[in-house]
Specification:
Number of helices: 5
CATH superfamily of the largest domain: Winged helix-like DNA-binding domain superfamily/Winged helix DNA-binding domain
Mean pLDDT: 87
Number of strands: 5
Number of domains: 2
Strand order of the largest sheet: 1-2-3
Helix content: 25-40%
CATH architecture of the largest domain: Orthogonal Bundle
Radius of gyration: 16 Å
Shape: globular
Strand content: 15-25%
Largest sheet: 3 strands, antiparallel
Distance between the termini: 43 Å
CATH topology of the largest domain: Arc Repressor Mutant, subunit A
Amino acid sequence: MDYTDPKFTAVHHRNVWGQWIFIFEKSKLCGLSYTGSNKPSSVKACAYAGSNTQDNLPPTVARAYHKAVRLLNQYLDGKLKEFSIPLQVYGTEFQKKVWKAISEIPYGQTRTYQQIASEIGAPKALRAVGGALHANPIAIILPCHRVVGKKGKMVGYAMGIDLKRRLLMLEGAIQNELELE
């Protein structure tokens, strides 16, 4: 999706996990990406970290941004299991089917690419499911990190396998590797 259209507002946000980019269409979240710059630290996300552009935001976007940041920080702090924020998702009908299926994966659980493909009625479309997950514009909120390979193998995550592993450990879907030492 091309977010250069003036109807979209991009807000860069930094917290202790790294750099995030929120994309809004008025009060609806259309995109969330993690650009990092450094690996997530063991420090919890903090509510006081802010945007470098928040003073120039239209009021509807500012309210949506503050709510989205609060929810993201609560999630990253392990205090939120389900996001409740208005979304505007752009994609093909197939992508939307995949994104709806992953949005129904409960916190702390995973599904395989095969399970998602079967669930949407396309049991042989594993690569297409992977493509739809890669194109997910609202990662974390549409939890594509909860989709794993056969036997729970960590594969394919647009924001990086390290972040995927960390999110699944946060949710308790996989064991914290530090506890294994």
